[in-house]
Specification:
The structure is a single chain. This protein has about 180 residues and is mostly beta strands. The protein is built from 1 helix and 14 strands, in the order αββββββββββββββ. The protein has a 6-stranded antiparallel barrel. A hairpin with a 4-residue loop joins strand 8 and strand 9. The longest helix is centred in the first third of the chain and has 25 residues.
Length: about 180
């Protein structure tokens, strides 16, 4: 009976180790990549180019996501015009299409709008960008806005800022004379 107990004890210990290994595997990514350079095309034309030194694919999670722990560079063209996005860290949630860009985020639009922030969310489905962190945006006319947070469509034509201050450049030639 003592021998049976010892065998049962060791067999349980072995199974426990296997269960722990399986649980660890659940925390590992389904796929990993280094030196990513992905081009997206539409009708034979490159419309976007995603470059990342490293990515981790967690498609095996209940809420799947792709992580870019060393940042990314995204170049995309619309009507032949180039816009860019850079960040030191990013994560994209597959089910929602929400992209969370963090650390030294810089967005440069095709019409020379430059946005800098420590965190920026991009809702790809709604074509909407927003942050609840401080940001700085320089508009194409040179105006600069520093704010606490904002919401905007992705081409920055509808921009709602909160608690902001900045320098607005006004063309005197476009002012109406009230006299």
């Amino acid at each position: 009976m003592a021998i049976g107990f010892v065998i049962a004890l060791f067999s349980c210990e072995g199974n426990y180790s296997n269960v722990q290994k399986l649980q660890q595997a659940d925390n590992l990514p389904l796929g990993e990549g280094k030196g990513m350079n992905t081009k997206y095309t539409d009708s034979g034309k490159v419309v976007a180019n995603l470059i990342a030194p490293e990515f981790l694919d967690f498609a095996n999670k209940e809420f799947p996501y792709t992580e870019f722990p060393k940042g990314l560079e995204l170049y995309f063209w619309q009507d032949g015009e180039l816009s860019t996005v850079f960040s030191d860290y990013a994560i994209r949630y597959e089910k929602t299409g929400l992209v969370d860009l963090r650390e030294n985020v810089v967005v440069v639009t095709s019409d020379s709008v430059v946005l800098k922030a420590e965190q920026l969310y991009w809702d790809q489905a709604k074509e909407w960008v927003f942050t609840d962190q401080p940001y700085q945006i320089q508009l194409k006319d040179g105006s600069v806005n520093n704010g606490a947070s904002f919401d905007s469509n992705q081409d920055f034509t509808t921009f709602i800022s909160r608690n902001n201050q900045g320098t607005q450049l006004i063309d005197k030639n476009n002012l109406k004379d009230d006299q």
